[in-house]
Amino acid sequence: MATKKPKPKEMSVGLILLIYVAFGLFVAWIIPAGREFLTRWRWAVILAILVLLGALVVPPIRRWLAKATASRRAGMIVFVVIPLLLVLVGIIVVLPSQYQTTVVRSVFFLVVCLFPAAMYYLFIATSKYSLLYEFLTNLDRLGLLTHRQWPLSPSPDVEIMRGLESDRQRRVLTYLRKFEAVYGPLPDNSLKQILEATAPPSTSTDPHWDQIVSSGFTTTFTQETTVPLVLATVLIALGWLITLPPWLAKAPEWPASLIPQQTPVHFAFLGAYFFSLQLLFRRYVRWDLDASAYVAIALRIILAVIGTWVVVQAVVVLFPQQDQQTWLSVLGFAIGVFPPVVWQFVQAVIKKATGATVLLPSLQSQMPLSDLDGFTVWHEARLEEEDIENIPNMATADLVELMLNTRFSPDRIIDWVDQAILYTHLGPEQKKNLATSPRARLRTHGIRTATSLTEAYQKSKAYGDPDTFEKILSGEGRSPIRSLVDTVATNPNLELIRTWRGLAEAAAQRTAQPDP
User: Fold this and answer.
1) 20 and 27 in contact (C-beta within 8 Å)?
2) Which of 5, 91, 135, 204 has fewest C-beta within 10 Å?
3) What does the alpha-carbon distance between residue 339 and residue 181 come to, in Å, rounded to a whole number?
4) In this predicted model, what pLDDT tens digit does every residue of 306-364 receive, in sequence order?
């Protein structure tokens, strides 16, 4: 019987390493040059020894944490780890005054550079693969797991049933492939099981599928996700190095330790970091943190720096006699938060230099996403990654893709697309007549989405007052309500939205009921 080879003990190796370090320090101390070096850089030597000791105790602590209960682990963090970190930070007080500001900036630099990447680590470490059941449930509510024209007859034609089932399975398999592209491959046997379990006429979803397929998910931290994360972290590190350089920290006053370099480019980086950090947090709490977020961060930092270079020159042209330095830094911060501001300054410079206003196209849409109810700048930034930049784009967006990729609330996505369908057909509003615009007049009757319009129109027939209802938007000639109801019905997303809201089934029941 083979005997197991004993594993080396980390503590024994650590003790040997400490002995060698102690011997090296002793030899250095008895040498005059070494003693001078140790005396001059004693704080750095002490810090290095503390780091070494911390690295040696990590493996035993990890083994203890793996076996300890949750309460003991919490106590370890609260009463041991946090006080130890506070002590390490407090060591800054005993350092020579000429090094204190440098160390403060260095600690701050490590925190702000590692924080975005740490958020991604927490997302990977704590995310639970409970998304498949939710995804299939949303498909079911949209009516995509069953065939939309499944025979209602108790004995439908067999060939028709086979054809419809084949089409349905291909469609569902396409959606599952999209799911795999985002969250990793599913086991082959699970694909067949899902297709059979969602077969009509009784559509069902099994909440235990997540446990079945979790083992088949690939890790989210792959080569494709690593590159954007590294690039964003490098750009963030470069930005903080030039904004708060530790090697230039000469002031002994502690309040001056965190005063950044005050130029427009530095504040542009601060604006980009300010916006990016909040964007990461919002995506983290929605379980929507992926590689695209870090690509967006890297792009925002680069655009902020380049845009600030351009705007500084534009300001010199627009205001040659004024002292620009007093407000250029604030403008740089605004550019970091909202890079499109740059284009407005470029247009102003072209207009002043040439007197023309049509040389450059405008980047502002006549129907921005901000016109939708419940929309914020954070939602706009996220949907730009999905190539949705205005209301017409939202009206024709792929609902399944949005639910799969953005992790917004499905009901919120449905409501946005529903609004966008109506607003697209109504067209852009004139700013001079906002109070009397078609959109405002419909809102006075509680109509803010395409489905609410069609339902209100159908209900007006049941109430016997369709003529009065049509006068909401009526002018001369045929009432525009009729044409509006007919045209919004041509949008491919409207049927899915009606199914989601349960309106399609209600309409079918009304149609099936005989007239009195």
Assistant:
1) no
2) 5
3) 31
4) 999 988 888 777 776 666 666 788 888 989 998 888 877 777 777 777 766 556 666 67
Domain ranges of the chain: 14-95, 140-148+161-216, 223-354, 369-512
Phi, psi of 390, rounded to the nearest 5 degrees = -150, 180
pLDDT band at 182 (very low <50, low <70, confident <90, very high): confident
Identify whether the C-beta of residue 112 lies closer than 8 Å to the C-beta of residue 240: yes
Name the token pair of 470.
């049509």
- pTM of the shown model: 0.73
Least confident of 43-57, 179-193, 200-214, 405-419: 200-214
Number of other residues whose CB lies within 10 A of the CB of residue 237? 15
Q: How far separated are the first and last CA of the chain, in Å rounded?
A: 90
Cα–Cα nearest to 336, from 309, 377, 305, 381: 305
CB of 410 closer than 8 Å to CB of 426: no
Residues in the chain: 516
Nearest in space to 189 (alpha carbons), one of 200, 181, 197: 197
Please, are residues 141 and 499 in contact by the beta-carbon 8 Å criterion?
Answer: yes
Which ranges constitute the DSSP H helices of 260-340?
264-285, 291-318, 325-337
| Bridge partners, residue 390, by sequence | 368
Q: How many CA atoms lie within 13 A of 461 on its CB side?
A: 8
**Which pair of tokens denotes residue 251?**
């002031």
- Residue 434: Cβ within 10 Å count: 10
